[in-house]
Amino acid sequence: MCGIVGYIGSSSAQSFLLEGLARLEYRGYDSAGLAVMEHGHIHTLKAAGRLEHLAQKAAAAPLAGCAGIGHTRWATHGEPSERNAHPHTDPQGRFALVHNGIIENHADLRGMLEQHGFIFRSDTDTEVIVHLIAHLWDGSLLSTLRQALPRLHGSYALALLCVHEPDAIFCARKDSPLVIGLAGDAQYLTSDIPALLPLTREAELLQDGEIGVLRREGVCVYDAMGNERPLRPLHVDWDVTAAEKDGFPHFMLKEIHEEPTALHRTLAAWSPDQLPMTAKSIRTLTIVACGTAYHAGVIGKYVIEQLARLPVTVDVASEFRYRQPILTANDLFLAISQSGETADTLAALREARKLGAQVMALTNVVGSTMAREAAPHVLYTHAGPEIAVASTKAYITQVETLLLLALELAEKRGTLSKDKADQLRADLAHLSSLSETLLNRQEVIAAFARRHCGHSHVFYIGRGVDYALAMEASLKLKEISYIMSEAYAAGELKHGTIALIEKGTLVCALMTQPHLADKMLSNIKEVKARGATVLAICGESLCNRVSAAADEIWPIPDTEPLLAPLLAAIPMQLLAYHIAVCRGCDVDKPRNLAKSVTVE
Ligand code: F6R
User: Fold this and answer.
1) Does the C-beta of 471 come closer than 6 Å to ligand 1?
2) Is the pLDDT confidence value at 599 over 80?
3) How far is CA 207 from the centre of its chain?
4) Higher pLDDT residue, 239 or 254?
5) Distance 499 CA to ligand 1 centre (A)
6) What pLDDT score does 391 carry?
């Protein structure tokens, strides 16, 4: 959600900034802009819309200079336009600033600054920061920032150029991510680690309240009191090609194809004993997340309750925070977040800790804010960087990790024998190769997508873990194809929503649970009787039972029922992908969305 880059070194900054922004464009694509320092003057370039518009302008009138900052925007305050694009500058052109986050008291600050004669040229909350710095300027940017930052309420990651410090980039953060890349005689700044991968593997993670100063020869980090702290670089071992398309037309398709490897890696790296308390002492488990990660959490509830007999609540983070939850020291709290930066999930984690619960995080990003705040009680997925806005491999590995957690809890709580737990782990280990077979069935899925991409609304139904998967399948379709879709617990449909089923309505029925197959079959017949076109996704051994009722059947290999969503998710993701492609949608960058939602 807004991407920030910075470069200072001995080469021309512009090309590094544009390349960096291209690698961060999944964080927002409403507008983009650059500011470069040249001979003590700041030059800016901005364009509304996709980065290619900025790149065209930059090619026509290149910015020279070896220090610069850049921004790709996901609009919060002010329409997506060139006027509202970052960087923002003060009236005298002494400072240029890019920002990710929201300044909640921007209206008050704007009023105060207008009284002091500052004229605003955009509708953004960001512009107040640069004017505030100009207003408070005391001859040293470090000391001015130390005065200005406490006056900002809300969240920010920001990078700043200043004509009085032409050989430096200043940066600061609070509740929005910012990473400094250390590379000897050049230093980089980015919002996310993947943008650094081709440049350096040494990442210095700025902490909340800190100020970083990047100079060509090195980096200094200061705490809020202005004391310099030693650098503690993190070595990043992600593969460079993981952040590139590698011959696939879209990141999303590539990332779906990486699922077998991601499953294998996550399983191989699983290490038990990350719990902050003994398994037997846990009274309840509260799982909190947003979007796809929330849907993984819903599967977590089914499997943990069933295997470990532990009461589990799953909450959407933005709701959890404000519903005055009841948690005690005997309650375990688990935040799930691919990025480890989602603002609501992070705030929920902090709230849970404040309430006295024992907190854990499940994330894909080492060094992310949630990983740091929950340390050492962190479960990692090893999906590698996920670039497509629509989450796929992260979801699969989140579900896998929750299964592993369920097995650990169940064994330790004595609700599952070691033999049975080991057998489930062996089944889990087999899933990686079973999932490969599903990737080979793409032509069938693409053909189905071509026939059905014209629907205006689609229903997904399922029972048990299949219902939890239906929620995710439905989100995947709507977010990238813009088709209105709904997920229903199959037994709930007839309590109202079945009124919407008419001749030709597409219903995707998930039927992987043998103990629920009879009930599912009845539900499928109910919609079929009202004219629905039914796609059934079912375990191989259940296919013959549904053959008379469904219009199309996609079998998935038989496996332990609780593990089946890990397989059934793959055709569901591919279906959403191919429908979106048929509809000509921008699969990797769906409208209005951005990856890593660092605003509330
Ligand atoms: C949908 C999607 C989002 C994220 C959600 C939470 O495909 O990716 O719904 O799952 O924004 O993000 P994280 O997991 O980074 O907290």
Assistant:
1) no
2) no
3) 20
4) 254
5) 31
6) 97
Question: How many Å apart are CA 443 and CA 451, to the nearest integer?
Answer: 12
284 — phi, psi (to 5°)?
-145, 160
> Is any atom of ligand 1 closer than 6 Å to the C-beta of 345?
yes
CA angle 59, 64, 65 (to 5 degrees): 140
339 Cβ inside 6 Å of ligand 1? yes
Give the position, in ligand 1's atom list, of the atom nearest the Cα of 338.
Answer: 14
- Mean pLDDT computed over 229-246: 82
Q: Which residues are catalytic, by number?
A: 2, 595
Three-state helix/strand/coil letters over 537-589? EEEHHHHHHHCCCCCEEEEECCCCHHHHHHHHHHHHHHHHHHHHHHCCCCCCC
> For the segment 158-208, what is each residue's pLDDT rounded down to a tens digit?
999 999 999 999 999 998 889 999 998 899 999 988 888 889 999 999 999
- Tens of pLDDT, residues 18-68: 999 998 888 877 899 999 999 999 999 999 988 999 999 999 999 999 999
> For ligand 1, is residue 144 a contact (CB within 6 Å)?
no
Beta bridge partners of 488: 461
Tokens of 139: 């001859």
How far away, in angstroms, is 236 Cα from ligand 1 center? 22
For residue 391 and ligand 1, the question of a CB distance below 6 A is answered with yes
Indicate which residue's Cα is closest to atom 7 of ligand 1: 390
- pLDDT single digits (tens) 334-365: 999 999 999 999 999 999 999 999 999 999 99
Is the beta carbon of 390 within 6 A of some atom in ligand 1?
yes
Residue 596: pLDDT band by 50, 70, 90 thresholds? low
**pLDDT confidence bin for 81, thresholds 50/70/90:** confident
**Which residue has the least CA distance to atom 5 on ligand 1?**
291
Higher local confidence (pLDDT), 304 or 596? 304
Lateral strand order in the sheet of 179-183: 41-48, 31-38, 67-73, 3-8, 186-190, 179-183, 202-205, 234-235
Q: Which residue lies with its CA nearest to atom 10 of ligand 1?
A: 292
Contact 298, 468 (CB under 8 A): yes
Ligand 1 centre distance from Cα of residue 342 (Å): 8
pLDDT of residue 149: 97
Q: Is the CB of 368 under 6 A from ligand 1?
A: no
3-state secondary structure of 202: strand
Q: How far is the CA of 345 from the centre of ligand 1 (A)?
A: 10
pLDDT of 240 higher than 90? no
Report the alpha-carbon distance of residue 337 to residue 208 in Å, rounded. 19
The C-alpha atoms of residue 340 and residue 370 are separated, in whole angstroms, by 5
Test site for ligand 1: of 250, 391, 596, most ligand atoms within 8 A of the Cβ: 391
C-alpha of 230 from chain center: 30
What separation in Å is there between the alpha carbon of 534 and the centre of ligand 1? 29
pLDDT at 1 over 90: no
